[in-house]
UniProtKB/TrEMBL annotation:
Belongs to the unc-93 family. It is found in: Membrane. This is UNC93-like protein MFSD11. Keywords: Glycoprotein, Membrane, Transmembrane, Transmembrane helix. It comes from Mesorhabditis belari.
C-alpha cells in the first residue's frame, strides 16, 4: 500500500468521524425541533427544515468562494477552518436557542463548501487516471459506515426510551456526543499529510473566482449540472425528508424514533454496498465508461420512489399523522428496504460525478468540484424549503423526473469523455482553460 492510498484512508477516517455526527443529526433534527416547538411555541415548528435550508443556501455561496479560500488558507488550514464550525453547531443543541441554530448553520454551511472542495482536490492530488476510481470508492467505503454507526447509536439511545418524543435531556446527550466526535474528526483532517501535486494556484485570488465563473459557461459543466442538481434534492430527501416522514407516520407498529435509527443503518448499508460494488466494477467501467452504472442507479431510484409512495401517507413529510398510506398499513420492512436503496443511489451518483471530474479536469479540479457542490447545495436548499409544505407524492414525482434527466445528461458527458480518451490513446484529455 503506497503513501497516496494511506492518505486517502486517513481522509476517509476523518470524514467518518465528521459525518457520524452530521448524518445522525440530519436524520432527527426536524423531529427534535418539533418536540421543542411543542414545549415552547416561540420555536418555529419547521425550524429544523429551515435551519438546514439556510446551511445549504450559504453552502451555495461557500462553493463559489471555495477555490479562492483554498488558495489563501492552504491545504491544512482549509481542512481545519472548514470543518470546525460543525462541532460548534452541534454544541448549540446543549442549550437550544433557535437564533444560534440559524447563525451556526449559516457559518457551517458556508465553510462546508470549502471542506468538500478540499476533499475533492485532495483525492485528485493523491490519484491518477488508473487509481482515481479506486481511491474515490475507497474513501466512500471508509466514511459511509458513519451512517451505520450513527444509526446504531440512535437505536441504542432511543431503545431505552418508550416516549415517542425526544426530550431535552436526550437531545443534550445526543448532540454532546456528536460535538465531541465531530471535533476529533476535525483534528484528523487537520493532520493529513499535504500533497502539492496539481496544486497550481494563482497568486491573484480574484483569478480563481473568475476561472470558476468561466468554467460555469462550458457545455460539459451544464451537462454535469443536471446530475449535480439531482444529487442535491436526493441528498435532502434521504437525509431529512424521508426520515422525518418515517418519524411522523405514527401508524407504524414500533416507536418511530427507533425506526429512524434503523433507517439510518439501512441507508448506510446501501452506501457501503454501493461503494463495494462500484470498486469491484471500476476496471470495466474504465474501459467502457461510467454511464451504464448511472442507469443502474436510476432504475433502483425509480423502484424506491414507487415503494415509498405505496408505504407512506402523502402528508407525512410535514405533520405527524395516523393517516393510512396506499398500503393498508405502513410496512417496516419496505421502509428499511427503501432506505437501503436510497443510500445505494446516493453513492452511485456521487462517485460517478466525482470520478468524471477528477479525470476530465485533472490539471485543476477545484473549480469543477466547486460548481458540482454549488448545484448540489442550491437544490438541496430548495428541497428543504418546499419539503415542509409539499406532499410526499409531489416530492417523489420531482425526484423521478430528476433521476431520469440526470442519467441522460451524464451519459452524454461521459461518452464525450470516453471518446476524447480514445482519441488521445488513453491519456487524460487536455482541459481547455477557462
Amino acid at each position: 500500500m503506497n503513501r497516496n492510498t494511506l492518505n486517502i484512508i486517513q481522509l476517509g477516517f476523518g470524514m467518518l468521524l465528521v459525518f457520524f455526527a452530521f448524518f445522525s443529526q440530519s436524520f432527527i433534527v426536524e423531529t427534535v425541533v418539533q418536540n421543542r416547538h411543542d414545549e415552547d411555541p416561540s420555536v418555529w415548528k419547521h425550524a429544523g427544515y429551515y435551519s438546514q435550508m439556510l446551511a445549504y443556501v450559504s453552502f451555495v455561496l461557500g462553493n463559489l468562494a471555495a477555490p479562492t479560500l483554498l488558495s489563501i488558507l492552504g491545504p491544512r488550514l482549509s481542512f481545519i477552518c472548514a470543518a470546525l464550525p460543525s462541532p460548534i453547531y452541534m454544541s448549540g443543541f446543549l442549550f437550544f436557542n433557535q437564533y444560534f441554530l440559524y447563525g451556526s448553520c449559516i457559518v457551517a454551511g458556508f465553510m462546508a463548501g470549502c471542506l468538500w472542495t478540499s476533499i475533492g482536490k485532495y483525492v485528485a492530488a493523491n490519484s491518477d487516471e488508473k487509481t482515481i476510481s479506486r481511491h474515490s470508492n475507497l474513501m466512500v467505503f471508509i466514511y459511509m459506515p458513519s451512517m451505520i454507526f450513527g444509526g446504531t447509536f440512535l437505536l441504542v439511545v432511543f431503545g431505552s426510551r418508550t416516549d415517542q418524543k425526544i426530550s431535552m435531556e436526550t437531545t443534550r446527550l445526543l448532540f454532546g456526543i456528536f460535538a465531541v466526535v465531530n471535533f476529533i474528526g476535525v483534528i484528523t483532517l487537520g493532520l493529513l499529510p499535504q500533497k502539492r501535486k496539481n496544486d497550481r494556484h494563482s497568486t491573484n485570488h480574484f483569478k480563481e473566482l473568475v476561472k470558476t465563473v468561466k468554467l460555469f459557461t462550458t457545455r460539459d459543466q451544464w451537462l454535469l449540472a443536471v446530475p449535480s442538481a439531482f444529487t442535491g434534492i436526493e441528498t435532502s430527501f434521504f437525509t431529512s425528508v424521508y426520515p422525518t416522514a418515517l418519524s411522523f407516520t405514527k401508524s407504524f407498529s414500533m416507536n418511530t424514533n427507533q425506526l429512524m435509527g434503523l433507517n439510518a443503518i439501512a441507508t448506510g448499508a446501501g452506501e457501503l454496498f454501493g461503494a463495494a460494488f462500484f470498486a469491484w466494477s471500476s476496471k470495466w467501467t474504465d474501459r467502457i465508461g461510467r454511464w451504464p452504472l448511472m442507469w443502474i442507479g436510476t432504475g433502483i431510484s425509480l423502484i424506491s420512489y414507487a415503494l415509498i409512495a405505496y408505504n407512506l401517507p402523502a402528508n407525512s413529510t410535514h405533520t405527524m399523522t395516523n393517516e393510512k398510506p396506499i398500503a393498508s398499513s405502513p410496512s417496516i420492512t419496505i421502509g428499511l428496504i427503501c432506505g437501503f436503496m436510497l443510500g445505494f443511489v446516493d453513492c452511485c451518483v456521487n462517485t460517478r460525478i466525482m470520478s468524471h471530474i477528477a479525470i476530465r479536469y485533472s490539471e485543476d479540479p477545484a473549480p469543477s468540484y466547486a460548481l458540482f457542490n454549488f448545484w448540489l447545495a442550491l437544490f438541496t436548499a430548495s428541497c428543504l424549503f418546499y419539503g415542509s409544505v409539499a406532499s410526499l407524492y409531489m416530492q417523489l414525482g420531482l425526484l423521478s423526473v430528476g433521476s431520469l434527466a440526470s442519467a441522460i445528461t451524464y451519459t452524454i458527458a461521459d461518452r464525450n469523455l470516453m471518446n476524447n480518451l480514445k482519441l488521445t490513446k488513453g491519456t487524460i484529455p487536455e482541459v481547455k482553460k477557462p
